[in-house]
Structures are given as structure tokens and as C-alpha cells.
Specification:
The structure is a single chain. The chain is an alpha/beta fold. It has a single domain, classed as P-loop containing nucleotide triphosphate hydrolases (Rossmann fold). Helices cover about 25% and strands about 20% of the residues. It is built from seven helices and ten strands. The protein has an eight-stranded mixed β-sheet, with helices on both faces. The chain starts with 11 loop residues before the first helix and ends in a 7-residue tail after the last helix. The relative contact order is 0.15.
Length: about 250
């Protein structure tokens, strides 16, 4: 029988660890940072969410669609950008419910994702059932209902964001812009740019840039911030949806 001695002054868990019930971890000196260097400390990560593209500095731009509070997004763009966002949201584990008057435009995506069994389902306008969103099963509702989308039966809620797609401005656009927490705008006419700027308070440089935005570029606006983002499709997205385009 082997005898084990305990070092003087060691008791409890420390004694057990030294007598065969585990190993003590390695000892390292503490890592200290001078106070004057704290402001230089940074981590190369962004918010959790969907990578919608890159910013003007080439850094990933991330849109957090899975939130514990209701979140409304208005996207004034072509169908292509909305479909890329839907694909990427589904890839993060969110369920995507598409409410649309043109289901044929979405069926290729549904088939590519396993016939609706892998996170994306398409419904007629006004036919979206309750989604049962939760922290474990967040939902993105995409409303592709034309220039005058009716008020949706399924609205934003905790863990359920709603993205409304408008191809161009319409009489309901000002109301939707005021209600949205986030507004994305692609290339529009000068008159449309002036109306958008009036509603959400864009400065003149942004007003002048909107009619000249390249394909795939979106100006994302919150109440306090604005960011130009270039959406770059992956090879798989190009194979399924084609290249970036403003017009459908």
C-alpha cells in the first residue's frame, strides 16, 4: 500500500488534488496592463448577427436581426438584396418566413434549402401563421408585398424581426420609415432621395450620393448612425441568385 503525505498547511480540495483526485493547473504570472494603455485595447470582433457586406474600410458589416426586443427594418431595394439577407439569416439558425405576392420568385431558394425544411418558408400575403419565436428559435419575417404592403398580421416581437421590402418609394413609405428602427436604401431617383432625406434627416452629401450608388451598395440608417455597405455575394449565392442588381 502506498502512503501519501500532505504538505503542511494544505487542507480540503487542495489536499485532494495532490493525492490523486486531479492535477493542479500550471502557474503563470499575472498579465498586467498599465492604465495609460487601456484605451488602446480592442478586440477584432463585431456584433453577433448577419454579415450584410463590408463597410468602406473593408471591415465586415453585421446586422443583428435576432433580438430580444421587437425590431422593424425597411429596405428600399431590389429583390436580390432581400434574398441574400434571408439566406444569411437562415444560415445563422433563424427561421425565415417570407410573405409575398410573387411566390415564384422565392421558390428557387426554397428548393435549394430543402423544400422549406431548413429554415425558409413562403406564404401568400396575409397568410403568415404565428411563428412562435423564442431565444432558441429566432424568426425573421420578410414582407415582399409590393409598393403598398398591407398591415401585417404577424408583427415584430421579441426574437421576431420584420424586414419590409419596397422596390421604390410609395405613399406608405414615409410611415414605414418612421416606424422602422433601421432603414436601408439603395439607388433611387433624386426626387426619391429628397423625400427620404426629409423623412429620416439625411445630410446633403448622402442625398446627393443615393441616385449614384453602385449595384450592391446600401446606405443603412438608424436614428443616430449611417453606414454605406457593399454586399458581396459568395459563389453559392451567385449560383443561386445571380450577381448583385438593383432592378429585378
Amino acid at each position: 500500500m502506498t502512503m501519501t503525505t500532505t504538505e503542511p498547511g494544505t487542507t480540503g480540495i487542495a489536499s485532494l488534488l495532490r493525492t490523486g483526485f486531479g492535477l493542479l493547473g500550471p502557474r503563470h504570472p499575472r498579465h498586467a496592463l498599465p492604465v495609460e494603455q487601456v484605451e488602446a485595447l480592442s478586440l477584432p470582433i463585431g456584433d453577433d448577427g448577419v454579415v450584410v457586406g463590408i463597410d468602406p474600410d473593408g471591415r465586415p458589416a453585421v446586422l443583428g436581426v435576432n433580438r430580444p426586443t421587437p425590431y422593424d427594418i425597411l429596405l428600399i431595394s431590389g429583390l436580390w438584396t432581400a434574398q441574400v439577407l434571408a439566406l444569411r439569416a437562415a444560415a445563422t439558425g433563424a427561421r425565415v418566413a417570407v410573405e409575398t405576392g410573387r411566390p415564384q420568385a422565392w421558390m428557387q431558394m426554397v428548393h435549394a434549402m430543402g423544400g422549406g425544411q431548413n429554415g425558409l418558408a413562403v406564404y401568400d400575403v396575409g397568410r403568415v401563421p404565428p411563428q412562435g419565436a423564442s431565444a432558441g428559435t429566432p424568426v425573421l419575417v420578410v414582407r415582399d408585398c409590393g409598393m403598398r404592403p398591407p398591415r401585417g398580421r404577424v408583427t415584430s416581437a421579441p426574437w421576431q424581426s420584420v424586414l419590409t421590402l419596397l422596390p421604390y418609394l410609395s405613399p406608405v413609405a414615409p410611415r414605414l420609415m418612421r416606424q422602422a428602427r433601421l432603414v436601408g436604401v439603395q439607388r433611387v431617383s433624386p426626387d426619391e432621395a429628397a423625400e427620404i432625406g426629409r423623412v429620416i434627416g439625411l445630410p446633403r452629401p448622402d442625398l446627393e450620393s443615393l441616385p449614384t450608388l453602385p449595384e450592391g451598395v446600401t446606405l443603412w440608417c438608424t436614428e443616430r448612425d449611417r453606414q454605406y455597405v457593399m454586399t458581396q455575394p459568395t459563389d453559392a449565392e451567385v449560383g443561386l441568385l445571380g450577381v448583385a442588381r438593383r432592378m429585378d
